[in-house]
Amino acid sequence: MKTLVLGASSNPERYSNKAVFSLLQHGHQVEAIGNKQDVAHGVTIHKELIHVPDVHTVTLYLNPKNQEIYYDYIVTLNPKRVIFNPGTENRDLQELLHQNQIQFEEACTLVLLATHQY
């Protein structure tokens, strides 16, 4: 499954960085977008919006206010699901996803991977 980490960071102390590492360890393809061009665990973190075909999951590591500029982008990707990691819960985006028949869940990507529920 291809996953887009939105809010990715090269800082190893950030949960988005840990998610990139864990996703790779579990054999997932990873794309990443963050606030600056960088690299995390061999994955390029893009600053600009990139075309990601066949994305299965978008996992969010942005607070709700910082998500707003990505609403249309996420819908256009048409992922199978969006994961709202702790602190990223956003009723407005969840309603938009619901209207576009995109599944979402409030969960921790790291826990889902560790417990084989991803």
Q: Can you give a write-up of this model?
A:
This protein is 31% helix and 25% strand. The chain has helices at residues 15-25, 64-67, 71-77, 91-99, 109-114; strands at 2-6, 29-33, 38-40, 43-46, 57-60, 81-84, 103-106. The protein has a seven-stranded mixed β-sheet, sandwiched between helices. The radius of gyration is 13 Å and the shape is globular.
Labels describing this entry:
single chain, 118 residues, alpha/beta
Order of helices and strands: EHEEEEHHEHEH
Mean pLDDT reading:
97
- The total count of strands amounts to 7
Q: Strand count, sense and closure of the main sheet?
A: 7 strands, mixed
- The number of distinct helices, counting runs of at least 4 residues, comes to 5
Query: Strand order across the biggest sheet?
Result: 3-4-2-1-5-6-7
Content of β-strand:
15-25%
Task: Briefly say what this structure is.
The protein has 118 residues and is an alpha/beta fold.
Secondary structure: elements and pairs:
Layout: E1 2-6, H1 15-25, E2 29-33, E3 38-40, E4 43-46, E5 57-60, H2 64-67, H3 71-77, E6 81-84, H4 91-99, E7 103-106, H5 109-114
Parallel strand pairs: 1-2, 1-5, 2-4, 5-6, 6-7
Antiparallel strand pairs: 3-4
